[in-house]
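Reproducibility note. Readers wishing to regenerate the assembly model reported in the main text can use the exact inputs given here. Chain order matters: entities are listed in the order in which they were concatenated for prediction.
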Amino acid sequence: MLCEHCQQREAVITISQKYQSGQDHHYCEICANQLYPFTAQIKKEPISIQQLLTNWQAPKERTSPKTCETCGMTYAQFTHTGRFGCPKCYATFASQLPKILRPIQADLQHVGHMPSAMKNEYSIKKKIEELRNKMQTAVQEERFEDAATLRDEARELESQLGGDY
Amino acid sequence: MSSIEEFLQRTRDRDITLADTTPNSIAMSTRIRLARNVADYRFPKWLTEQEELEIERQVRHALMDTYQELNHFALSDIAPLARHVLVEKHLISPHFMKQKSGDLLVSEDETMSIMVNEEDHLRIQCLATGLQLQETYERASKVDQVLEQQVTYAFDEKLGYLTSCPTNVGTGLRASVMLHLPALTMTNRMNIIAQTMLRLGIVVRGIYGEGSNSLGNIYQVSNQVTLGKSEVTILTELQEVVEKVIESELQARQALVKNSALMMEDQVYRALGVLTHARILTSDEAATNLSRLRLGIDMKLIDLPIKAVNQCISCMQPGFLQYYDGQTLPANDRDILRAKLVRETLQQAI
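Running the prediction on these inputs yields the following structure tokens for the assembly.
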């Protein structure tokens, strides 16, 4: 099959669109790289242990759906009223937040007071983040045993938090 | 427990924003507001009646032990005119006034009010006379801490307290100071000052907050940013800006006296003339003249108790006028009644 964009080279990559048309598209490597720059790493080696560990670092962010599952608010409704429907909207429209908040706020990170119940959870999360950073360094320095120990420590802390963290 | 009518009769002469302030007090009052929401509920605008009641019950229950003296009123039980008075006393917001439902908790001395199911589930508000940002914040923060023992707040470690409007997210803190700035207004410097302040993240508004006009040279100066700065930083920055504005106002007053002392004195006494003799007074005219009188007292151009001026400022407001007259009045009749009340109050004081 020929690449549907340049109609010259052999199509080797299939792009499946989940949200818009739902159709599959077939491109050659060059056109795919141009059209979908985020898939630029396609030529890399099969997944190394390094990648495996670094990929584990943080859960993948989901792409922003158009409607809040909790309250049913759409982004269009928000832009119309300037008000969110529920606290979960902030997570739903996370990818839009910088655009909304930057012009009106000093920064995108809260630095003020927090409920005392959250303080404990927050310190555990901070600790996990720290462990992950150390782990990354260990992986880069190829100290894989250390990395594994650090990973176990982080998992232990995560289990304290419970839920889906 | 008493009705809103009884409460407003008891507190008729009470207006925290107009308490007996010391001379030269340009900063009339301080207000701290914290916006909070209960986790796992939609924001008030989208709540069912049942959910609204659940939240109102939760809040009352959480505050019951620590704040036994709080008066509790369901908004639906408050008549339109009484709501108007509450706005003029800064106990509720103009936005809350227009709502169908909601709950109001207010302390007997009117230094603390909590609006439940306004734009956010909770709007904790503390008021004080003069410039007292830190102390007032601490009082509001105490209410917040009592509430969080029993209510789980919608909070995100990255974004802070989650609010219906992204302009409040983070600390949920709006700190404002009411300033009487006649000299800066007369010398046409308020526009420039407002623009400069905006660059520092400080907003200047009219006396009833968002969307209201400045009346009688009274301005509300408050922080704009709620996310990315701590409460301490927000309060310190506002304090610094307010102090600078007060300094500018004092300088402008001195310059006015130096360059046009007689004109100033003339204006003050003309104001007294109008206020003690007019038979029809619009709120604009009353506010402008009362501001001049206040300035005259501050600058010792006239000997009058500031209390009398404060009483006039309080009783000349449309809601107050009509509520204590017991009826809704057309604008013309309000102006006649206003002139009468102001005239009587000032003549007693002279």
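We highlight two features of this model. Confidence is low (pLDDT under 50) at residues 39-44, 57-62 of chain A. Chain A is about 45% helix and 5% strand.
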